[in-house]
Amino acid sequence: MFSFVKKSFVITELEIRKVMHDPTEIFMRAVQPALWILIFGKVFERMHPLSNSVNYIDFMTPGILAQSVLFISIFYGIAIIWERDLGLTHKFLATPTPRVALVLGKAISAGVRSLPIVIIIYLIAILLKVNINWNILNIIGVLVMVILGSIFFSTFSLIIACVVKTRERFMGIGQVLTMPLFFASNAIYPIEIMPGWLKTISLINPLTYIINALRSLMITNTPSTSLINDFGIVICASAAFVAIGGNLYKRVII
């Protein structure tokens, strides 16, 4: 078990070094969530899409953080295709590292890549006077959920890459999936106002449970959901996808 964890984190370190060579990537990824909160959020706040007792910016901020995690992680699988084209995947598979450890290490690195976005979202929230809960345990919970969400979506992305095998197909499927996942969640509007069919989709959408947890942990005076339920669903879904990804990883070179 210790050897498995060690090998996973070796892969994580290798992936993180790529980001260290080009830190501008982090700042470029911060542009989109900033625009969503500063423009979309402020406009919809004036339209009062929620009840008067709810501050829309407070409601939306955790949703945009979850959106950022989704958008960063869902295209992570394209790196697997690049590695195959460069011959790196063959080298990874030739090592004694278990395939599940390879997948988990890459997934954890996607979570680490998402952490700077958390800092940026919190800074924007301070500027907009969002009612942030500064309890240290809540902040740790946010970081853990961001990493778990990144593991889930990056592994989902890796599975897609192993199946479709080409960059063109992968980009097409990735673009098709991101918007439905985002809009079929409670990121920018509550489940209560959705039509029945969309409520059903939202309740089976893992992004909804990520947002529930982030909203409960980040925002004060927010009706709490079952954090055990939210974390449990995301952990189980992530573990299942890591296992599936480990089994499919070699298919990317076939």
Task: Tell me what you see in this structure.
This protein is mainly α and 254 residues long. The protein has one domain. Helices cover 78% and strands 0% of the residues. Helix 7 runs antiparallel to helix 10. The longest helix is centred in the middle third of the chain and has 29 residues, at 99-127. The radius of gyration is 18 Å and the shape is globular. The mean pLDDT is 82.
What's the total helix number? 11
Helix fraction bin = over 70%
| Rg | 18 Å
Q: Span from first to last CA?
A: 29 Å
- Proportion of residues in extended strands: under 5%
Return the structural class: mainly alpha
Number of domains: 1
Residue windows where pLDDT falls under 50 for at least 5 positions? none
Residue-averaged pLDDT: 82
Note the quaternary state here: single chain
Q: What's the number of extended β-strand segments?
A: 0
| Biggest sheet overview | none
Shape: globular
Taken in chain order, the helices and strands follow as HHHHHHHHHHH
